[in-house]
Specification:
The complex is a heterodimer of chains A (about 110) and B (about 110). Chain A has about 110 residues and is mainly beta. Chain A has no helices and 11 strands. Chain B has no helices and 11 strands. The chains are: A mainly beta (about 110), B mainly beta (about 110). Chains A and B meet through strand 5, strand 9 and strand 10 of A and strand 4, strand 5, strand 9 and strand 10 of B.
């Protein structure tokens, strides 16, 4: 199993550009989530999904969109990038919300 | 105020020393997770526990539900244990995992 994969690993955007961070898992997990990690702060939940076709907002959803058309994929879209979105982004999956979490390798995003 | 607090923020130990990282949380929870993040950035799950104690190699995790407190111990620490250790707790009242800010551990030879 590949586990949780994320692409790209690194990305530099200009303010106002849009892009999609890809996340995929091959463990048939129902629960998938996106986090951002900033220095001195814990992982913060952006959006999550409890199954295909179902998504919900986390604690910092503004400026991000998600969709879950399949169990495997959970892309995160930045609609109009801002410098405040400079961060490291992690995708995670688990069997259910409160089960062992499997994390992707992360995407380091810089917005100039 | 964070719902999940970790201490210390940073910790330096000499190889062979016993290390303890603490995690406290504000409400009753159904599970607590300990995660490890290596300098390369990847995050792996070490333990998930809801009561008592779990052991894996030189790592031991304990939880005291009444005290709302968990500890991660590293016995006979080694430089390869250098990493950020993160605790996360799940409560039905939150409906999601809440993460501590992490503890940076450096073990010197």
């Amino acid at each position: 199993n590949a586990g949780v994969t994320q692409t790209p690993k690194f990305q530099v955007l200009k303010t106002g550009q849009s892009m999609t961070l890809q996340c995929a898992q091959d463990m048939n997990h129902e629960y998938m989530s996106w986090y951002r990690q900033d220095p001195g702060m814990g992982l913060r939940l952006i959006h999550y999904s409890v199954g295909a076709g179902i998504t919900d907002q986390g604690e910092v959803p503004n400026g991000y969109n998600v969709s879950r058309s399949t169990t495997e994929d959970f892309p995160l879209r930045l609609l109009s990038a801002a410098p405040s979105q400079t961060s490291v982004y992690f995708c995670a999956s688990s069997y259910q919300t409160n089960y062992e979490q499997y994390f992707g390798p992360g995407t380091r995003l810089t917005v100039t | 105020k964070n719902e999940v607090e970790q201490s210390p923020q940073n910790l330096t130990a000499q190889e062979g020393e016993f290390i303890t990282i603490n995690c406290s949380y504000s409400v009753g929870i159904s599970a607590l997770h300990w995660l490890q993040q290596h300098p390369g950035g990847g995050i792996v799950s070490l333990f998930m526990l809801s009561s008592g104690k779990k052991k894996h190699g030189r790592l031991i995790a304990t939880i005291n539900i009444q005290e709302k407190h968990s500890s991660l111990h590293i016995t006979a620490s080694h430089p390869r244990d250098s990493a950020v250790y993160i605790c996360a707790a799940y409560s039905d009242s939150w409906g999601k995992l809440q993460f501590g800010a992490g503890t940076q551990v450096v073990v010197t030879p």
